[in-house]
Specification:
The chain is of the alpha+beta class and 480 residues long. It is built from 13 helices and 10 strands. The strands form 3 sheets. A 5-stranded antiparallel beta sheet has the order 2-1-9-8-7, sandwiched between helices.
């Protein structure tokens, strides 16, 4: 990863004036939270348990459930997952894979964290649990196990559904659980760009590559939710997670998160208590931010809402008010002291060496393929209906999940791949699937291929409930 050639310096007099203005400004209304990953202590909070629509932050829980399925031996990172008609029918953001396309779990998770494709999220859910509904059950079981108290999940991608809610606290706890329980997979959350065929797919996370120490997690956006982010950063041996929900734009979301990190890293000593001990209102209705976020945006601006201009510097939102009440003089003064401190951000274009991904099974794969499974008929239906096949590679075709009228993409954005992917995504022929030559895994570790060949998990095996207890040697899912 390389940064642009120029860096932003702020004069000391301007720093003091800006700091005073920000510290004097009122706190923003949207929920924010900063926690220490190791201790689970809350460092900064504003409405941390307010119910909120998570949007694509949901995909952090999707990855958590999928990684547990790998740990339980139900699938491996090399297992090919089959794209169903239901998955291909999802609205954007999407990869545009045709039904019948295969993608390994390793590649699918990388795509989820960088591109945030809704079709791939459905593919992962169906491959792990057999159906979206069964996967949602696993998501809620994991939420209960982690001690989440404001979260309820009905889909794996975060598309609008009034029943699917979470909070800044719960999202921070999911992020912490991913980093603590699966440290060997943490690189997938900080990928700056992917390469699929000739296409380069950049991250939506405006902190990666521009805020020193930022090392990942996930963004999300819908008109109802606003602009959300769960971000992690490391400095001086400390790793923090910052959560921003309901920001009015991608740039302001990034600015809020950067300011929260500045304030969090400037604090030493104890915190405000353990994150799991924050008082909870329980699962309830979330506010609909559509009027504030999208009422004045055109359709094109909404569809492109997740795309942040990564060549622009991180800058305070209008009025100079950022974060939960302002900024940190310590962090801003650090901008003058050294070009390596947190206050510096790149102002030139950010360049990433893209991580290659591909469609099709890994070369030489002989194990099972994970796919949607047909629902078991009830006794009454079984008596009146013809026999249902034991399993099918395709889930029943379903209508796309309903979006707000202003969020609905133009009709005709069909189930075929976009033009940029036409050379990489093809309809399978005679049991053969295209593989991007020369691709290799650089961001995650996968299950041993030889072991997978000898004893591959069955894609049609009954779903097992994840174990209640953590494996020996693993940190507990809930902070001590």
């Amino acid at each position: 990863m390389q940064f642009g050639p120029t860096l932003m310096r702020i004069g000391l007099d301007k720093i003091i004036c800006l700091a005073v203005a920000m510290l004097a400004g009122p706190a923003l209304a949207n929920p924010t939270l900063v926690i220490d990953v190791d201790s689970g202590q809350v460092l900064i909070e504003s409405q941390p348990t307010a119910n909120w629509y998570p949007a694509s932050l949901t995909k952090l829980m999707t990855v958590y459930v999928a990684l547990h399925a790998v740990r339980d031996g139900r699938v491996s990172m090399d297992t090919p997952f089959l794209v169903s008609a239901r998955a291909a029918n999802m609205p954007p953001s999407k990869m545009g894979f045709r039904p019948g396309t295969q993608v390994t779990l390793d590649n699918a998770l990388k795509m989820l964290m960088v591109k945030s494709p809704n079709d791939v999220a459905i593919t992962v859910a169906e491959g792990v649990s057999g159906s979206v509904e069964a996967f949602a059950d696993e998501m809620n079981a994991a939420a209960a196990r982690l001690g989440l108290r404001e979260s309820h999940f009905v889909n794996p991608n975060g598309l609008p559904d009034s029943r699917q809610v979470s909070s800044a606290r719960d999202m921070a706890m999911i992020g912490r659980a991913l980093l603590k329980e699966f440290p060997e997979e943490s690189d997938i959350f900080g990928i700056g760009a992917l390469q699929l065929g000739a296409q380069i797919i950049p991250t939506h996370n405006g902190l990666i590559g521009r805020y020193p120490g930022a090392d990942g997690m996930k963004t999300g956006f819908t008109c109802a939710a606003g602009f959300n982010v769960v971000a992690s950063a490391t400095h001086g041996g400390r790793r923090l997670i910052a959560v921003v929900l309901g920001s009015p734009s991608a740039r302001e979301r990034t600015a809020e998160a950067a300011a929260l990190f500045d304030r969090g890293f400037s604090q030493w000593g104890g915190g405000l208590g353990a994150v799991e001990n924050l008082p909870s209102p329980g699962v309830g209705a979330a506010p609909d931010m559509h009027q504030e976020i999208c009422s004045r945006r055109g359709r094109a601006a909404i569809v492109a809402g997740e795309e942040e201009e990564l060549s622009a510097p991180i800058a305070p939102p209008p009025g100079g008010k950022i974060g939960a009440g302002g900024g940190s003089i310590y962090a801003m003064a650090a901008t003058v002291a050294s070009p390596l401190t947190r206050g510096f951000v790149a102002t030139g274009p950010v360049h990433f060496d893209p991580i290659p991904v591909f469609v099709g099974p890994k070369p030489g794969w002989t194990g099972p393929i994970a796919a949607a499974r047909a629902a078991e008929p009830t006794v009454e239906k079984a008596a009146a209906a013809p026999a249902v096949p034991e399993a099918t590679a395709y889930a029943p075709a379903d209508k796309p999940q309903a979006l707000d009228k202003d969020e609905t993409p133009p009709l005709g954005a069909a189930t075929t791949a976009p033009m940029a992917l036409q050379g990489a995504v093809k309809t399978p022929v005679a049991g053969k699937f295209p593989v991007q030559p020369g691709s290799k895994k650089t961001a995650t570790k996968v299950a041993d291929q030889g072991k997978a060949k000898a004893k591959g998990p069955s894609a049609a095996a009954p779903r097992k409930t994840p174990p209640k207890n953590q494996p020996a040697g693993q940190a507990p899912a809930v902070a001590p």
